[in-house]
Amino acid sequence: MDFEDIRKQFPQLKNKVDEKESVYLDSAATALKPSSVLKTLETYYLYECANIHRGIHYLSELNTSKFENVRKLSHKFLNSRYIEEIIFTKGTTDSINLLAYSWGEININKGDEILITQMEHHANIVPWQLLCENKGAHLKVAPINDKGEIILEEFSKLISAKTKLCAFTYVSNTLGTINPIREMSSIAHSNGSLVFVDAAQAAPHLPIDVINIDCDFLALSGHKIYGPTGIGILYGKKELLEKMRPYQSGGSMIDQVSFDKTTFNCVPHIFEAGTPHIAGVLGMGTAIEFLQALDFDSVIKYEEEILQYAHHELEKIKGLTIIGTAKNKCAVISFTMDSAHPHDIATIANKEGIALRTGHHCTQPLMKRFNVPATARASFSIYNTKNDVDRLVQTLNKINELFG
């Protein structure tokens, strides 16, 4: 694959900051958008704008067809058994909240347990926390080791007959750790627990196969896979979705409405109330097509080379500590420096044209586990190069000179 040609498909990379070429190292927060995705959004809003479903005019029928074709595309992208197992949401956070309400309110009772891990994003902690508080259930947390890897023995020990759901991330947004999710799913299912996988960080970097993973639910966000913000996917096994209650009510999710009683639409439409983010779905469809046109083996190899090079070069910097050194990881390096606070690191990097993210990355319990208040985070994608890493290293060395 020609990764230089791929870079040319992302117009934002032509930007400059203070006359310096832009280096974007914040893809874990949101990925840049290729021209094809931008073209799809432009076409919809400039020439083909119309609402979907129930309209009989040309533009409505055109967009309805395109919208539902993205569902088919997503079904193939995730290798789900049925098209109906694909629900369009606002993103991973919205998907988890939908699941916590629609599945959790029916299936979680007093004394039940939900198991998560120490490396979870707040979005995969707080909804379950609120559910447990409401239902009198217990939230249990599986520990990780000093490298940032799940301790499978402890994970297994924490699952009991009371554990109704195991919810864990595929790839940590802070550590870059790739979890052994097939093994974790197998352990959970052998104990009768259902499995939810947060694939927000994994989807741009690894192929996602829900049958191979053997998860019961999985979520991802469109903006992480080079698509628009405000759109995402919740996958769920059809037999489970059909037993869940509506998350929101209104238009589109109904069958018949009277003042005495309302009956509801079938899956997946029962979970898609109101006018959807039509442009977002279409743009996400184009992003999925962009991803599917790539050779994932080449993508994985290329991104591994960038990550290993970055690890090697950053480890040479005096006073720099990498947080998260798992054997299997991708795309992300979080670090601290003795000479400067993470926010100072990002401020100076910005003056050099480099976009970093700093803070707790919506993983405050994880920060506490490593006894740091915050980290600087460099995250990589298919449009990054070793030259981007070199620019970062030069800047970090400059910071040491300024503050050391």
What report would you give on this structure?
The chain is of the alpha/beta class and 404 residues long. The chain has two domains: 3-27 and 296-403, Aspartate Aminotransferase, domain 1 (Alpha-Beta Complex); 50-292, Type I PLP-dependent aspartate aminotransferase-like (Major domain) (Aspartate Aminotransferase, domain 2), CATH 3.40.640.10. It is 39% helix and 17% strand. It has 15 helices and 17 strands. The strands form five sheets. It has a seven-stranded mixed sheet, sandwiched between helices. It has a four-stranded antiparallel sheet with strand order 13-14-17-16. A two-stranded antiparallel sheet has the order 1-2. α12 runs parallel beside α15 (386-403). The longest helix is centred in the first third of the chain and has 21 residues, at 58-78. The protein is globular and about 75 Å long. The chain starts with a helix and ends with a helix.
List the helices and strands and how they pair.
Layout: H1 3-7, E1 16-17, E2 20-21, E3 23-24, H2 35-47, H3 58-78, E4 86-89, H4 92-102, H5 104-107, E5 113-117, H6 126-135, E6 138-142, H7 152-158, E7 163-169, H8 181-190, E8 194-198, H9 210-213, E9 217-221, E10 232-236, H10 238-241, E11 254-257, E12 262-264, H11 278-292, H12 296-314, E13 320-323, E14 332-337, H13 342-351, E15 354-355, E16 357-359, H14 364-369, E17 375-379, H15 386-403
Parallel strand pairs: 3-15, 5-6, 5-7, 7-8, 8-9
Antiparallel strand pairs: 1-2, 4-10, 9-10, 11-12, 13-14, 14-17, 16-17
